Description:
Elements: H1 2-15, H2 20-37, H3 40-47, H4 53-63, H5 69-80, H6 87-101, E1 104-111, H7 117-131, E2 134-141, E3 146-151, E4 156-161, H8 162-176
Parallel strand pairs: 1-2
Antiparallel strand pairs: 1-3, 3-4
Helix pairs in contact: 1-6, 2-6, 4-5
Pfam family, one: OSCP
Keywords: ATP synthesis, Cell membrane, CF(1), Hydrogen ion transport, Ion transport, Membrane, Transport
InterPro entries: ATP_synth_OSCP/delta_N_sf, ATPase_OSCP/dsu
Amino acid sequence: MYGIVAKKYTQALMRSVKDSAELEADLQIFKDLSLVFKDKKVYDLLASPFLNKNQKESLILSVLDQSNQKICNFIKLLNHSGRLLLIPHIALELEKRILALKKEYVAKLVSKEELDSGTLQKIQASLANKLGVKLSIKQELSGLDGIKLSVEDLGIEVAFSKERFASDLKNHILKAI
């Protein structure tokens, strides 16, 4: 649910920006604020019903550089509607949109074993060339026997699993008999 609402606030924030340099600066501010939210004590304070909105707003604004009046007003707007907890989600969404404007995407590679950097570079170059975009790959390890590559922002997913391959091979042999 946070993601859907964060997209609307991100869109409004992007409309208020004049150029890409200002957008990058805003992204950095939101990334810094997101780091503050990772502290459990701060998060608990902002989620607490015992603090009023003014106290929560002053807590967030104390972390910010007060010279950026637009961001301060944006934080006040978020606080007024009770949506301060959206700040990390807005940071993620803003980063995705900036990368999409630059035609840069992040692919997630999930496999059982870690692949060497040469193989990752080949996969990255091949897929980036085929899609016509800049691509970076983040690798995650999982217990699945197989490999899966997905670029969420482009809606692309490629997967290969040993179990699926064996099942398809058995079905093909059975059909041939």
